[in-house]
Amino acid sequence: MSPSPGKDAAAGRGPLGPRKSWTELLAGRVKKHTYDPEREQKLKDAALHLLRYHQNMNDLLLEVGDPQCKDLCLSKLIDCDSAEASSERPSSFIRFAFRDQALRLGVPVGVLSARVFAQSVQQICAEPSHPVLLSPEQRKKLSSSLEIVQHLLAQNMFSRVTFCQELWKAQNSLLPEAVWSLHTHSVVSLQELLRSHPDTQTMTTWLFRNLRFLCEQTDASCPSADVTEAMLAGFTQLLISRAFQESSDPRRPVEPETRVAADVLHRMLTLALDTLDADPQATSDHQAARGWFGVYSGHRCCGMAAAESLTRFFSYTLTQILTHRPVLKVSDAIQKQKEWSFAKTHQLLTTLYCRVFVTLGVEESVDRLQEVLELQEVNWQHVLSCVSTLVVCFPEAGQLVKDWIASLMARAFESYHLDSVVTAFLIVRQATLEGPFVFPSYADWFKEAFGSSHGYHSCSKKTLVFLFKFLSDLVPWEAPRYMQVHIFHPPLVPSKYHSLLTDYISLAKTRLADLKVSLENVGLYEDLSSSGDIAEPQSQAIQDVEKAIMVYEQTGKIPMAVMEASIFRRPYYLSHFLPALLTPRVLPKVPDSRAAFIETLKRADKIPCSLYDAYRQACATAEEKQPENVTSGKRAEPDCAEQPLGLLAAALGELRALMTDPTQYGVISAQVAVVSGRINTALGRSSDDGSRRKAKIRLSVLTPMLQGQDQVVVDLLLTTFCQNLMAASSFVPPERQSPWAVLFVRTLCGHTLLPAVLTRLCQLLHHQGPSLSAPHVLGLAALAVHLGESRSTLPEVDPGSLGPAGSLCVPEFLNSLLTCCTRESQLFCMKFCTAAISYCLCKFSAQPEASLHNYLSPGLIKKFQFVLLRLFSEARASCPQGHMADVPWRTLYLPSADWQGAALSLWRWDRFQELLKEKEFYLTYKDWIQLELEVQPEADVLSETERHDFHQWAVYEHFVPAPAAVGGCGGDLEVACTVLVGELMDFCQSWRNYKHLEHSDLALGGRRGNEDILSRLQEMAADLELDQGSSAPCGSSTPRSHFLFRVFKTRLQALARGDSMATRLRRQQELLMCKRLLLRLPPSVLVGSPQAGQPVSPSCEEFFSLVNSELRNLCYHGSVLTHDITMHFFRGLLNVCFRSQDPALVANLTLKECQAKCPMIVTSALSWWSSLEPVLCSRWKKCHQSTLPQELQRLQEAQEFASNFHSDSASPAPSPAWISAAALHFATREVRKENIKTHLRRLDCEREELLIALLFFSLMGLLSSYLTQRDTAEYAKAVDICAEVLMCLGRRKVSWLMLFQLTEADAELGHLLRLAPEQHTRLLPLAFYSLVSCFSQDAVIKEEAFLYVAVDMYLKLVQLFVDGETRIVSPQAGRSLKLQGHSLLQGGPVQLVREARAFLLQLIPQCPKRCFSNMTELLAGRGDCDPEVSNALLQRQQAGPSFDLSQEPLLF
User: Fold this and answer.
1) What does the buried/exposed string (b/e) look like for 616-651 if buried means 16 or more CB atoms within 10 Å of the residue's CB?
2) What pTM was estimated for this model as a whole?
3) Could you read off the pLDDT of 1425-1448 as tens digits, one per residue?
4) Most buried in the list 44, 826, 1414, 1427, measured by CB within 10 Å?
């Protein structure tokens, strides 16, 4: 077969003759040979060898007949001028050209193409214009070559292995961008290139050099910055994946490329750390270090295939940092560690720490830190700066560090391991450098570790020696402040080892003397744990004075530190503190806190008279010279404060600039630390006072006051926070912002400035809220959210006497500042709540709704619901589902903020509605009442009609039908009334009712806001009465109790009964509220509502029980209820009678029940009969043309009897006798004192029962006069009345002693106890001995029971005096009552007790023996009240019958 010339030209000729096509060869083989299995195997082996040589079977099958390829020049093929020219050539033309040349050279086509293109890449990279990047022309040529290579790769005509080998032969001229392009175009990967290099050391050098160049370019502004960024990330990911890949076989030797990758990473980090240690400026090394530290950011490492590799890389990085060049000794660390705090550490290094901690996790980072310190030599600067960053940026790390320190200390003192105790002390001191709100102060830690018998050193003498040996070794190196801590808070040492402590203290004092540091000049409030320099005594004294005045403002007492200094530290107190306090000035007309503090010290003799007189004289001189120097003084003041404030303002401005630059987010934490230091300087404080970090903050909500400098600094900080929030929100939403706000708020909380911040917030939110602009509202709302985030680290707040009982956490305190009293306050509350909730939901959008209570007070969300439902009727409708996909935060910080639209959008937002389903965020019926009671109708945003409509909707449409599980009433109107009554009583007695009223009369409805709620209560009570009346079963004998009495009973049972004045006043206040509520509700509440047509008495049991147990104790006029409640009861009685079938029967049955169960109602009716009778008669005659019912007539007759008692024609006393006695007593009270004998002259004609009852009522009148004493003559008249009755009883020889021994079990007179208040009953001994002069001598001696009663009354009188119940007489009344013959009023209770004692001592010898029969039992347990009286009684009881009575003095 003869091939054509075209084919010869295309195929060429082989060395043995013209080549044949594959088809011809196969055809010849088929014709000449038959099938042979053995030759088949040989043929397969030969074919495989041929395929390995040619790489691709397509080369063998390719038949090309294009004569144009014969004279092809490969250099022209590769070095084309344009990509278009290359793309226009047929792909087959390129393949044929390479294969033809490979055949001529006798090499595989893949090897040939690889060598050609490696040479082409080398030519392209020749004469570079940049150390790592290609020029535009070079990039264009490389792109054309890569297209050809990709085509050859697709045809398997390119050897990657050969290409890598050829490429590395000219590595010095190879540019990283060219290598990166080969990787991105899938020609050869970076991993293949790394694996193929023959010399690992050379490869390491090349990679390190080029990575360094790449890092230098990250900060440079060049058009290929994105390429540089991608290259650096790609190379880094390759190195990390190779260096830290997980090996399946630990025994397998490390591959060369793994060693190369690890070595390059190590050298890069070492370069960066060395650069930071050299304190670089704007050098190329600094740029390289910054670029390499940027590698650790998430977006450059997130492309890792395995998270385990990334974790191992960061763990290795932390280890390398901690062990980098460990040249510093422990002594160097002790001396220099204050320079390694978080604020002073390079921000690149702190940022790197944070990224490592975030990746590894805080717990694993602490474990790794602990492991490195135990096993390796470390760089103490890096270790301690790492600890500072850990505790500052990760609050949860504080406890882990504490646990680590505790384990180190335990190990050190168990095994006397010096390295452990050194490490523990260094870590403690480093952590305390960051302030007490980050970590407890060194003084606190040292006291806790060694200040008790449970300290680490308390095991044995050996541990004590170990401790003091260590502390002594520290003395030459450590700062003076730490030695001051050890001296002022020494370890607790047993007395027998006290020499160890004294030796150390002597050594430390000697060292302090060498350093010229005086222990005497340590400030009262100086933080011995701070890292700052020791202040001059004068400067420290000024700070002590400011803090002492601040404590005095909050407590009103001399601070304990000042008292102790005046006794134990007199040199400092007299030489520094008092001169700083008594700086001459022009005294204000109204004494301020400083002046009040000075006067308090003077009264306590804590200021020498000479020093105080000199101070007053200097102040007077300053006041005389004020007109001359006032101008210059005002000019000088700003100069002193301008520089620190200017520095603080500059630091805050730098912080704002960093916030708006996303690339600088890593620097923010360091800048916040700078701001923290500037705050201390601006406040004139060297450091924070750690001793007060958890103390309760006391504020005055009504009159919040701030010192001038504190207010300037706080205003600057709050203004900056608001401006920063607006600036940050204009760039990114809150959830994507840097943690600047958290760090800023933590800085505010970490200073003694926190009370000033809360005071200023009180001024702004509580007093100036409506006048705040939108940016201020947004900023303060966000600040409130972040304060809530830090609630666990903040002290509680005591809002003062007009605040809620107890202390509040900061979020609840801020919520309490928001009021809804007026139109303006409601609108401001809506704005603030809208901003706070929107910010919180946006900032913490990734967290579940249930966790939002950690940031927001539930009360704030409830107030938002309350205000929104109140202001916008459209909010009262149910919200449709699927409303709004995002929170309306963006609309708020726009210049024209639509607060109403934003509030409604937030209300309708699905996520907010889901939030409201959390139980703690329910706006319950109880919450609504509390908030509604605060509203002042005269200043309300709603008109009366709108408010009425809102109340109707809220009560009847919203809360009453709502289930109880969500805070409603479950459709039960009685539950609604019960809750309303309870809240109304709570409100009228709480601080909320008085915080706007300086003089409250405690009256229900004292603020008009109560009236509307009372109207709702009256409406619901009327509806409830109708419902119960219609639903009660006919003939029911056990009517259901009224809700009002159940509320009263529950509340009164909850109040403790006691004899203290506070307890009694609290109970009286509660009873007054109960009575006033009864008067505001229909009178049927008192009497009940019997069924129509049933001739039975109404159910008054609950009212009777209330009167007998509680209301009678409000009767200061003896046995009489007040006029209003008495009239209310009889109005109810008439109403019930007129609705019954037999009104007279109902009235008679009810009044008889009153006589038997609640006689005080009857006596009250008699007392107020002059105003009650006309009403009763008039209404009864109008409804029934008949006379009054029999029982009312009985009262009428008793009144007539009493009125005509002095006349000869008086009718006999009607029964029962106690009613007539009560009427007579009330009538006698109206008689003039001189006419009493005449008025009572007919007593001898009356029954004994009436006389006994009359004496009882007279005694009650006497005690009432004693208790009230409004008129000095009333008491004397009451005594005269009792005397007349006693005389009458004496003449008729009727015993009256049983009145002083009454019990409720007494069948005849027991009912009289229900007519006396409990206080009157307790004071009966006082009445007994007030009437001693009225007793008949014969009756006293002859009456066998008299001595027993007299002794009993005396013992009770002494007990009353001991308990203080005789002090209830007002001093003014006591001074005005100077009546002859009344020792109680002349000399007071003491004189009365003295005379009672003398009376008994005279009486005892005169009484016959039979009078002492029961004396032993009487004195049992009470003999110690008066041992002399007890002894006289017992001696007389044991005396014989011949005992001489004649020598005893007469009693009268």
Assistant:
1) eeebeebeeeeeeeeeeeeeeeeeeeeebbebbeeb
2) 0.62
3) 788 888 888 888 776 554 444 344
4) 826
